[in-house]
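On clarity, I found the account of how folds are encoded harder to follow than it need be. Since the whole study asks how a given chain folds, the encoding of that fold should be made plain. For illustration, here is how one protein appears when written out as sequence plus structure tokens:
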Amino acid sequence: MRKNWNARLAWGWACVLMVLASCKAPQENPDNTYAFVKPANFPEPTYTFDNNPVTKEGFLLGRRLFFDPLLSRDGSVSCNNCHIQSTAFADSQQHPLSIGVDNRVGIRNSPSLANMAFMPEFFWDGGVTHLDFVPINAIEASFEMDETLANVVAKLNADPTYPTLFKEAFGVEKVTSPYMLQALSQFMVMMVSANSKYDKYKRGEGQTLTSDELEGLQLFQAKCGSCHSGELFTDFSYRNNGISTTFSDEGRARISEFAGDIGKFRVPSLRNVALTAPYMHNARFRTLADVLQHYAEGVKPSATLDASLQKDGKLGIAMTQDEQQKIIAFLRTLTDQDFRSDTRFQNAD
């Protein structure tokens, strides 16, 4: 039987982090620029802020780490290489699959990092269940940063600046991997995208939607809302959406070790979806029009195909070309221009 490495790793780090949280002195955060604020129309966050409250010092340290290629084996790749602010911290269209050290090509498309504080699980297969553990995969994957946590910590301790920054953020005398991961989390949980045209309309802030956008919203709710539900536009489930009949990447089954999960991947949030092309875990589709056309006419049968895509002996979702265009008009209202230009998330070094 294959071992569920992510689950065992998460449990071990959870124990370490609980110990550290119990002895870490609380810090004040008087500057609201670095305070986490839940948008009025959002659900409660899932992130454990009690164990790792955001502070200015912790956020700025996390930002520095996010942009620092020191985390990679050869100093060539940072988190920002695959998560770019202009595309809502997804990858660029030039890199359909993630690119790591030595220009090694990854196995999946890098998703957006927006609204991570509200996510119960991470990655396309849900292999990590706490945000603090997410960077480990990127750091230690051979096709991404190809490094070890131990080497990263050694490099940070040898750096002339980082030990002082960790002391200012956490009151510690030396850099340790749990605090490094917590600093990265403090940066990532602040990546809240909730100020799109749709949000302003939904919160009654004087924004209106066009007739096509309103009709697109209604069509979206009827045809897409069962999976892309709520204010985060995802139900957090794992589904086979019919993009293939066979699966070299088994998706959720790699984690669950259950044959019924073969070909199932996380339902992604659609916030900023107009910015995050290409689409699907394997970057199959280049445009939103391609995606809608797939659901209308391109769904392929397989043993684990989602039930919502096979009704009355027919595959897919019935949509005319006009309906597809109106749904796309609505999806474009989910673009948050403030988020993609927020200077807090830009490299200051």
Observations:
- The CA atoms of residues 240 and 264 lie 4 Å apart.
